[in-house]
Design a protein that fits this description.
The chain has 343 residues and is mostly beta strands. It folds into two domains: 225 residues, Sandwich (Jelly Rolls); 73 residues, Roll (Endonuclease I-creI), CATH 3.10.28. The chain contains two helices and 22 strands. A nine-stranded mixed β-sheet has the order 1-4-18-6-15-19-20-22-21. Strands 3, 5, 11, 13, 14, 16 and 17 form a seven-stranded mixed β-sheet that branches. It has a four-stranded antiparallel β-sheet with strand order 7-8-9-10, with no helix packed on it. The chain is globular. About 7% of the residues have low confidence.
Length: 343
């Protein structure tokens, strides 16, 4: 989610494994560690903090997340002011053996919308087409509006219902984490609405079942945070929110020792994807593509300029969001265009 002031079907699949060349994360069934997030134990920053649970490489974390409003908005008449904070985070989770200079691999095994309703909202001072503190305009801010999305678990759809007419349409549900990240480097504490090198509020639909997410480890244990569940979202998240939902989640963690990355990455059986988060959006794009070029060089053996040229012909770009403090671009290439991975 993007919206500030305290704002963000069942769908279970088995994950396909992503790996770096020569550094294969464990894929065996691991010990299951359960943790229940509540409004009383969530966090609102990515930071070095006391872990709520400790995991070993290969362990499976079975947990839940609240929606971006802290599950506070439930019915017509509720307002954004009822949300206790922005994007409450479940965690942090300490992963044994993870140290600065390593990579944390998080395989998303299953995600379920934990309820029968999602929420969308507009808020003054937020959104791609609204005046903000840093994009001031003379017109009055758009008014606060809230939409409720009934979720049909049988058909795996959410229903948009127009507020100003009788129009309705069903939207396919694709659950994903709007927030997934680790503790930042240098002792920083970063707001749960911020996406950056540590991951965070990336609002990337790639943070979904079937994908592995890789993070740079900045502190001992990595300190993994999860939150801001989405049932569906358009590219750019332009209105400031997705279909915001609580989630039930299972993820498997692993550590790739001695392998340092600078920004989050995604991988599945068919593609590799790199994240850039910054403003202006062209710098976010440059970050994503320089990371993707480096990944292709290291794992697939192409030279820097050959990788650059190839990406210029077959790469794909997703503008994940353009409403948060940093904009997020995910650059990807299908593996069918790449050489065999180096052993």
């Amino acid at each position: 989610m993007g919206i500030r002031v305290g704002w963000r079907s069942r769908f279970v699949l088995v994950l396909s494994v992503g790996v770096f060349a020569g550094r294969t994360p464990s894929v065996a069934q691991g010990n299951v560690v359960k943790y229940q997030g509540t409004i009383h134990n969530v966090k609102y920053v990515y930071a070095t903090a006391e872990p709520v649970a400790r995991l070993k490489p290969g362990d499976i974390l079975d947990t839940n997340t609240l929606d971006c409003f802290g599950d506070a908005i439930r019915k017509p008449g509720d307002t954004l002011s009822m949300a206790p904070g922005d994007n409450p985070l479940t965690g942090p989770f300490y992963v044994e053996g993870a140290e600065p200079g390593d990579t944390l691999a998080v395989k998303i095994l299953s995600l379920e919308v934990n309820g029968d309703q999602g929420v969308g909202a507009l808020g003054p001072g937020f959104g791609a087409l609204n005046a903000t503190n840093y994009t001031p305009m003379l017109h009055a801010p758009l008014p606060e509006k809230i939409w409720f999305y009934p979720i049909d678990h049988a058909t795996n759809t959410a229903t948009f219902k127009a507020l100003d007419s009788k129009f309705e349409v069903k939207i396919p549900v694709h659950p994903f984490f709007g927030c997934i990240g680790v503790a930042p480097a240098g002792g920083e504490a970063r707001s749960s609405i911020v996406p950056a090198e540590f991951g965070g509020n990336m609002d990337a639909p790639e943070a979904s079942v079937g994908n592995t997410v890789y993070f740079p480890v900045n502190v001992k244990g990595g300190l993994l945070y999860l939150g801001d569940g989405h049932a569906a979202m358009g590219d750019g998240e332009i209105a400031g929110a997705a279909i915001e939902v609580p989630l039930r989640a299972r993820v498997q963690v692993d550590v790739i020792k001695g392998h340092k990355i600078n920004w989050p990455r995604f991988e599945n059986d068919t593609a590799i994807m790199a994240v850039g988060a910054y403003r202006p959006v062209d710098d976010a794009l440059r970050i994503a593509f320089t990371e993707l070029v480096a990944w292709i060089q290291e794992d697939y053996g192409l030279s820097q300029l050959d990788a650059y040229e190839l990406l210029g012909k077959v790469a794909r770009i997703r503008l994940a969001e353009m409403v948060d403090p940093n904009y997020v671009v995910v650059a990807s290439i299908e593996k069918k265009y790449l050489p065999a991975k180096k052993k």
